[in-house]
Amino acid sequence: MEKHYLTPEGKKQLEEKLNYYKTVKRPNVVKRIGIAREFGDLSENSEYDAAKDEQAQIESEITEMENILLNAEVIDKKNIDSTVVNIGTKVKLYDEDFDEELEYRISGSSESDPKNGVISNVSPVAKAIIGHKKGESVTVHTPGGVSHFKIVDIKI
Q: Domain containing 9 — which CATH number?
């Protein structure tokens, strides 16, 4: 099984979301299915079909969240070495190709949010910089081409 890295906050958020799906979303869709059944012929009942599709989606998401939590490794900030880039660190990079600084927090894939500067440990940039130290230059191979970064700073 794939290991899922989570911060304590990310684990708590995922547990809350899972609880919401189980206690609110799942019962609501079951009610909708029951109401739709009362409309009669299920072969031409679009409300029933939509509710069953939603139920399948909810069950799939519940299973995914349960699997993530089952295989989660919680990142303890006290155990992170701030001298190298790793999951749980914030890193400031200098993009040598575009002459700009970028800041990212490295997280597990469940918590990644690239629009807000949180990248997954399995992303091309994170894979390339993990294990490197402040001052080192790194070449990153991405689907868009090759990029060159210098690690400016590492924080927890």
A: 1.10.287.180
Task: Identify whether residues 56 and 105 lie together within a single domain.
Answer: no
What is the tens place of the pLDDT at every residue in 138-148?
999 988 899 99
Write out pLDDT tens, residues 75-84: 988 889 999 9
Spatial distance between the Cα atoms of 60 and 72, rounded to a whole number of angstroms: 18
Helices 8-20 and 46-70, axial angle in degrees (round to 10)? 150
**81 and 142 both lie in a single domain:** yes
pLDDT in tens, 1-39: 678 999 898 999 999 999 999 999 999 999 999 888 887
Domain carrying residue 134: 77-155
Q: Which helix (H) or strand (E) holds 74?
A: strand 72-74
CATH, residue 128 = 3.10.50.30
Q: How many domains does the chain have?
A: 2
- 100-107 and 118-120 beta bridge pairing: parallel
What is the spatial distance between Cα 126 and Cα 72, in angstroms, rounded to a whole number? 19
Q: At how many degrees (to 10) do helices 46-70 and 26-37 cross?
A: 160
